[in-house]
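Hi everyone, sorry if this is the wrong subforum. Our group has a chain we'd like a structural model of before ordering constructs, and none of us has done structure prediction before. Sequence below.
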Amino acid sequence: MKIIKRGLLSEDIRNLSSELFLLKLLECYASEKILTSEKVEGILYERIGLLKEKLVYYTKNESSSINEEEAESILTGIDYTLGMYLKTLDEEKLINELRSENLKCILDKGEKLIKAKVEENRILFEKIKREKLRVNNYSYDDTIEYGLSVFFSKYDVFFKSQDTPCFIDYQLPVDIMKYKGIEYIEKYLKILNFESEFCNKFAEKKLRKLLKSYDEKYEELLINIFELTLINALGRFMCDRDLLDLELTENDVLQIKYQYENLSLDESFEKFIQGLKGLLNKLEIKDEELFRYASYIIQNDFEFIYNILKEDDAVRKIFITIPIEKEKETIEYVDGKKLSDFMFRKYTEKIRECTSISKKTEIINSNFKSLQDIVDMFHSDCLFNDEYYYYFNNIQDIQMALLYKYFIDRSLEDQYEEEWCNYLKKYILSLSKEKQEEMKKIIDKIKFI
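Answer:
Right subforum, don't worry. Here is the predicted structure as tokens:
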């Protein structure tokens, strides 16, 4: 590590995690004679003094109750807090601060800064939760709903500011693992917010369809939703197709390949970046940082992308092609003729007079030809308790499917006063998994006319 011309710190040092910043800074300034060796020794002495002060609080004035590992962890926390503040200063202010301020004052400023960042990121996290994609990926859902929340209840600014108490499974396409504490959370949430802003431009059912085309079991995979969405959205833009969808056909992919066939690596990269600018503009995304983030992802993988573009069939390794669905087989149902009011009353009275459920079922099956009449009959106190189960068990699968389809389409799931609906749901759930799947297939085909 070095200080480049005019005493400016190298980017390598600026990009260090905060707990490493102070010691590397002192090493550089000592070697460049910006700080005297006496001043550096004085700062290091103050640093140990801060540790002693923290240990008094940590052990409640019983220094014998802490082991060496814990003491080192608290010292790392001090370095982290100091580094967090010092990294915010330009070099002139940074040097003046180290020369003129005592370390305790800098530590206080660092703690104040970290507390402010925790609150800023708590607000950002609430925004991310509100705008969470409903795509049913377990790592994404668990990270947002549970894993990140832990940080805001467990983070210890005073003693362990370098720790990152959270459970994060959702993977980003960029590596930020060198950062810790609030610094890591700030970067993670910022990226997650970029991803939400971009992916929310597309309908959730389109996102789910894309992910399912990537892998049938995408729910269980450790994937990055943004990366997969970005590349297919770029493909749509390159093919001059509307952005209401994310589908790419085999022909689309071939068209993209032809566009890059005679271009060099640099020309291809420039074309991709121009495509990215056009895509974001069309999606009305003006955030320059989001553009830089997306550009960085493309740049990181571009040599691989370029080589794949040159292969005959391998371009499908970049873009996700979504199979065109076959036209779904349908069962068109036209309701049967309804009974007259007189005949409806006659048959429902006859059913109520019966004591045998088998006889009741026989009357219903012989005389009720309209689905609406059957539902009205359920409302007329004709069947009770387990009689529903007997009736459901003695009708054809298609009749059962029609009843369940009627129930679903009219959003009766939460209407618990509908007694027949409750019994129908319980009956369906009592069937074997195979029978339930068979029933679902029939229901999916039914179309009420």
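For your construct planning: The longest helix spans residues 103-130. The radius of gyration is 33 Å.
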